[in-house]
Recover the amino acids of this structure.
């Protein structure tokens, strides 16, 4: 309606028009203001994303943090190196000027590998051949002289069950490879890991004297990849070792030629009494709602065959660097952003559980927790909550694309923040590309040389941005 | 309109309704058919994508091809190794059972590095320090005893121009680093590469006796990264070398302390007469329109400091493996799919030009060309045509996501297929993640150990899928 046409309206209608017109004009201006604010907010966030990106990539300090953490060495729970890492990261948090830096206790297993393991194949055709093995984490030792027995190769527990008592007195050789066809290697890992975790128990139920498990990697090489196993109460404990993939292929081949081939192994690992270790906590206190908390974390402990550069010194470096970027850019988050270096993700997850139920949580409201425990490779996205809780975050995808990521999707986090999730905290997981992760995972190859400083920093930048957005917007 | 309400329509209207109704019903059925076909087609393509993915990831033969190509050694144009690679890939194409396998000639430069170069800094504070240098490709040699001169450090040509005649008799040290802030490292490379390509000419215009260029990498290490340079006709030719980034940082630091610091270098490279080399060509002949061609390619030649695993043995392996997958899956493409191993991308691009203008192109219609020349890293997307020609391809994005990629965008290809583009061919470039590319690019570090078999194979799978879709759908 043009202004000129108003004069021909009857007076009554004209009177009625005013409130409507007023409403229309008002809503127009409100829309303009709201839209303007949304645009302004987007612009502000885009600027902040760029600032975080530029500072991060210019300095690449995540890699310096990674150097410090890995320089401690392997950090198996209960080891002096794990304790040194606690002290180191507490000191780093102080140096970064974080608030509320403190340790929180958690009891952790203290399993020690002992002397380097020996593994050997003896077959009528080839004589005795040494192959690389490593005790699986939590295994009992063999007798001092080792054990040696005929080998039964299986690819699954159902295959084992079909064998009846043919496993009696034997070493069960779990030789299921990770499925190379899956683009996401974690799916392949999850499907094959059961033989490492439960293999010894299942083998013992069939009267086996030992369990030997193909390393969970898709590379064919000479590195055993260890990890956690569990004994079931009431089932005889038998020693369990992982064997390098090249060793596994050789054993499988020799078994085909000579089914009486034997395998020998000598493990001298021992389970000592549990010890008290610590999660390491540090904050940037929120300026408006300090009691509302966004947690970021990785785990300080690692397996003992390498300094755990990707698993999970990278996640610790990501979290510390994210806080450093937010602090040094003086972004002053409204809510508290916290880094937690969790202790004992690998040997049972006590750190995550104890963090969630600590007395210190009283009066704290954990809105969201972001975990990085999938390595320091190129970050491709974030898994956020479930399909319902994810929805409102889709709008931030383009902000993350501006710092190099590709997507936000429903997903969630890992072991360390799962207990917070049970209390209603939104769980978020950084998702780096997974192609190379199991090349190094839990093996002697998980060293800093396999981490690219740019890839690592991009992960820290993404974590900083997500934590900051959550601190401003809530959930 | 419900069926019951028809009875109350006047007869005339009822008559008029029939044709309309018929049309509506007909269009409904047509829509169902079309939609059904689209869905069927999508399903067929999805199945084919999965088949290619599964075969590729199960066998990971791209890496075997890469091993073969890199085992030849560095493949500088004109070198015996480059010729060996021509023979090798011709043989591989025969073994793969490709059609129409043949060589096409192209004249290439024959520049030879000679003895390993020497570079040294002399400053009053530190005495003489050796630093790693390498002649830039195409440089003239120094006199046998080398040259030594005071150094002027600049970060840009405009800075050089402002110096007036202060560069006279000096070595100009171009020390502009690649900008680490850009998530896409190719952007940083493109911005800094001019100093390597044109530095010697610009320095000579100011009376300099030599040019020294910071290596185009963001890693701080001891590897010189070479590449192409050009002399301008009419400008004195002066020798040009690249210096490792650690060496560049040291030189810059020493110059600050002692501006009279000198730099010495000894280069014994030589430009010999050009020689005739070859592109290597092989097809899967199209079953319906064999004259319509989809080309895939990478370049066989590399720089001479390493076997060029990423640059560009990876692109050759991608293309050969893509054809192998299509052939062994018996997909029988409607149009011809061709692999070309281009010769001489690095030293002037003659292979791509000669391919496009060859007599052999008569009667061939090149619909599209897909180039892989950005390394064998995780493939993240494809650049396709320009913003207009790209549009119809967006619909295939989800197919590529099903094999691990993230996006299709406007983009295009590289040096080797650009001449085809000038003839109207649609240009497509595989885009792997770029974070690690310049760690190794044109240096001694571009070796097979830096290539991950899974990442490489995903690139080949993506190429196979794109070539197949184009062969079925045209453009």
């Amino acid at each position: 309606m043009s202004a000129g046409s108003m004069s021909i309206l009857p007076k009554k209608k004209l009177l009625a028009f005013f409130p409507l017109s007023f409403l229309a004009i008002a809503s127009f201006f409100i829309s303009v203001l709201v839209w303007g604010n949304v645009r302004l907010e987007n612009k502000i966030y885009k600027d902040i994303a760029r600032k975080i990106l530029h500072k991060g990539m210019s300095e690449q300090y995540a890699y310096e943090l990674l150097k410090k953490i890995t320089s401690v060495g392997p950090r198996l729970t209960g080891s002096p190196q794990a304790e040194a890492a606690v002290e180191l990261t507490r000191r780093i948090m102080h140096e970064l000027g974080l608030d509320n830096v403190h340790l929180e206790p958690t009891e952790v297993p203290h399993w020690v590998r002992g002397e380097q393991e020996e593994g050997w194949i003896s077959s009528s055709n080839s004589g005795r051949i040494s192959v690389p093995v490593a005790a699986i984490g939590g295994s009992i030792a063999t007798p001092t002289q080792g054990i040696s027995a005929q080998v039964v190769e299986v690819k699954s527990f159902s295959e084992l069950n079909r064998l009846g008592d043919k496993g009696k007195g034997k070493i069960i050789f779990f030789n299921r490879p990770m499925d190379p066809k899956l683009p996401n290697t974690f799916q392949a890992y999850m499907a094959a890991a059961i033989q490492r975790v439960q293999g010894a128990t299942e083998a013992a139920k069939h009267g086996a004297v030992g369990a030997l498990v193909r390393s969970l990697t898709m590379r064919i090489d000479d590195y055993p990849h260890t990890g956690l196993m569990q004994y079931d109460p009431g089932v005889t404990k038998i020693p369990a070792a992982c064997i390098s993939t090249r060793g596994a292929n050789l054993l499988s081949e020799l078994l085909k030629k000579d089914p009486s081939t034997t395998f020998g192994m000598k493990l001298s690992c021992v389970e000592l009494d549990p010890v008290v270790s610590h999660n390491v906590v540090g904050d940037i206190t929120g300026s408006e709602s300090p009691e509302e908390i966004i947690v970021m974390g990785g785990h300080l402990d690692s397996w003992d065959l390498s300094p755990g550069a990707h698993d999970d010194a990278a996640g610790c470096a990501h979290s510390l660097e994210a806080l450093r970027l937010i602090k040094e850019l003086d972004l002053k988050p409204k809510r508290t952003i916290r880094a937690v270096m969790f202790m004992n993700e690998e040997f049972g997850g006590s750190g995550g559980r104890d963090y969630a139920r600590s007395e210190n949580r009283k009066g704290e409201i954990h809105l969201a927790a972001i975990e990085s425990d999938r390595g320091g490779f190129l970050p491709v996205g974030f898994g956020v909550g479930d399909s319902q809780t994810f929805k409102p975050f889709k709008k931030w995808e383009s902000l993350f694309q501006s710092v190099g990521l590709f997507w936000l999707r429903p997903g969630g986090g890992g072991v360390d923040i799962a207990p917070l999730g049970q209390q209603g905290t939104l769980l978020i997981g950084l998702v780096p590309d997974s192609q190379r992760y199991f090349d190094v995972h839990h093996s002697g190859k998980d060293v800093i040389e396999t981490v690219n400083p740019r890839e690592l920093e991009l992960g820290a930048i993404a974590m900083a941005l997500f934590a900051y957005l959550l601190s401003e917007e809530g959930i």
In short: Chain B touches chain A at residues 53-54, 57-58, 60, 180-183, 185, 218, 378, 380, 403-404, 406-407, 433, 435-436, 439, 452, 454-455, 458 (CB under 8 Å). The first helix of chain B runs from residue 11 to 59. The longest strand of chain B covers residues 270-284.
